[in-house]
Automatic annotation (TrEMBL):
Pathway assignment: Cofactor biosynthesis; coenzyme A biosynthesis
Assigned protein family: Belongs to the archaeal phosphopantothenate synthetase family.
Entry keyword set: ATP-binding, Coenzyme A biosynthesis, Ligase, Nucleotide-binding
Binding of ATP, residues: R15, R37, D180, L181, N182, R186, T187, N198, I199
Species of origin: Methanobrevibacter thaueri
E.C. code: 6.3.2.36
BP-aspect Gene Ontology terms: coenzyme A biosynthetic process
Catalytic activity: (R)-4-phosphopantoate + beta-alanine + ATP = (R)-4'-phosphopantothenate + AMP + diphosphate + H(+)
Protein name stated in the entry: 4-phosphopantoate--beta-alanine ligase
Its biological purpose: Catalyzes the condensation of (R)-4-phosphopantoate and beta-alanine to 4'-phosphopantothenate in the CoA biosynthesis pathway.
Lineage: Archaea, Methanobacteriati, Methanobacteriota, Methanomada group, Methanobacteria
Subunit structure: Homodimer.
NCBIfam families xref list: PRK13761.1
Amino acid sequence: MIPKSHPRYESLLLRDKMVKAAKKGYLADSAMIAHGRGEAFDYLIGERTTYPAKRAMYVAVAALLLSNNPVISVNGNATALAVEEIIELANSVGAKIEINLFYRTDDRVKIITQIYKDLGYDKILGTLDDDIEYLTDIKNNRASASKTGIYSADTVLIPLEDGDRAEILKKSGKNIITIDLNPLSRTSKMSDVSIMDNIVRAIPFMTKIAEDLKTQDKQVLMEIVNDFDNEENLKESLEQIKLKE
Ligand code: PTJ
């Protein structure tokens, strides 16, 4: 057990979640590397939610609430770190949840499906028995998507997504929202709304924002979305990275 008094308590707790998930067998082989890269960026922003990230989250939630078929895409890392919070956000903004794995195997899909089911979430998409379509002419796993989920979605929230899949989603004309601690990643650069924050802080914060924005007129939400400049916001995000004490 990690003592709460430990100066790196929060960070160690997340590592512990990742280790347990790896033991359960549903993480990608490179999941720990991705987590470590995220940790490094988080360290450099002071492990806090920055102002540009908050601004992007308001825009993201407004976009999700305005969408006809919003979908939250989940992979191994996102499930390990924030499964309950993801279900709460999905319920709050009326989004579907779809398993969307970069390194897809039947075993991993089975375990992740069961994790959501055990938490009472039976509607998960992207399962082994779901109807699959392809977002490109090339029928490979990178481009696969659930027919009623990502394939027909107008807005997709992709936390911790690899650049290749993000590109396929973007090219298929969808509105892409990402949560990625690396503001220089291909995914952050090509998304419509890029939230440079840790998924464990961002998702619950977005649920809080949703409770507020749900009471607003459509017009107000549209203004929030239209006033946003992702490139400018990413520049501001990058400025939050401190290399000196
Ligand atoms: O479960 P799968 O098969 O879909 O695979 C998942 C990973 C994450 C292994 C796969 O998508 C991958 O290789 O992703 P990348 O290309 O390493 O990108 C992950 C991005 O997420 C990197 O830019 C990291 O900085 C960032 N990241 C890592 N941990 C977090 C994070 N962003 C937000 N919160 C985190 N906790």
